[in-house]
Amino acid sequence: MKLANSACPMKERSTTVALTPLSARAAAACPAISQDTGLLLAESYANHLARRRISNACRWGKGTDHRELGTERGIKLVPENLLKKRKAYQAIKANQAKLALQQKRKVQKGIPLKFKRLEEFLKDSKKRQRDETRLTRLQRRPPPAMPPAKQQLAFAVRIKEIKGISPKVREVIQMLRLRKIFSGTFVKVTKTSIKMLKTVEPYVAWGFPNLKSVRELILKRGQGKINKKKVPLTDNTLIEKHLGEHGIICLEDLIHELYCAGKNFRVVNNFLWPFNLSVPRHAARDQVGLMKDVGNPGPRAEEINTVIRKLN
Questions:
Q1: DSSP secondary-structure letter at 97?
Q2: Among residues 89, 148, 263, 280, which is most buried (max CB within 10 A)?
Q3: What is the mean pLDDT of residues 163-177?
Q4: What's the CA gap between 35 and 270, in Å, rounded?
Q5: 3-class secondary-structure state, position 250
Q6: Where in the chain is the domain with CATH 3.30.1390.20?
Q7: Domain 121-210+279-311 is found in CATH 3.30.565.10
Q8: What is the DSSP letter of 148?
Q9: Which of 77, 39, 24, 59 is nearest to 51 (CA)?
């Protein structure tokens, strides 16, 4: 379409321009509009449409190419070396935070300082002196009487703490393998074993178990010592593999050898791990309740079966 401006003193130009609706309406309203003004209106309207398209695309999350829309707006670029420095700095800060957290956890897991009061030293000293006096008197007395011949097996369970005791008593407790409280072992009745039980009498309850107690202990808490590891006795093949050369091929043979204190008693007893019995209900609350449940240490004869029932 040709536009000629006769009213304006500007030099006449003959140019073909594709007018937009806005420029067409403006030309219709003002017949004397110039070609330059029409071009400016067309360019302004095109920019307006481009901005609207960009705004709508951003609003609805659609990607747009500013070059396709005819605009010179672009994303501000960051130099590559600056991005590398920023990434390296973030990695250094993350590593420092990780090391600081590890150091904090290491400090928290450290062994806390234990302060021992003077009363504890006095208590341990009195306990040690009392043990020494008791052992001296025990040596002066005649040897204890042997139990009846039918009582060939004893069971000992430690029910007292051994903190601060005499080294001699501690050594006997380790020989009996009663290193933990509420742990128990079988002992063959001999003069030497009775003397050992008398030595640790204030800390150990012992007596003569019946066949039912022996069977319950083996079936419920029996564990074998294999390669210095605890292995539950749940398979006769396991027993035959390690005790078959002594004629013990099943669980019943093992129970019979223990209860009768046969010639292979020591082998079988060393094969078994010490029994870790359960802690009584009152053990963590008060000493009175513990004494009611378990009783006092020392020889208990047949009453050891009641103790086994409560702790097993």
A1: H
A2: 280
A3: 91
A4: 115
A5: coil
A6: 121-210+279-311
A7: no
A8: P
A9: 59
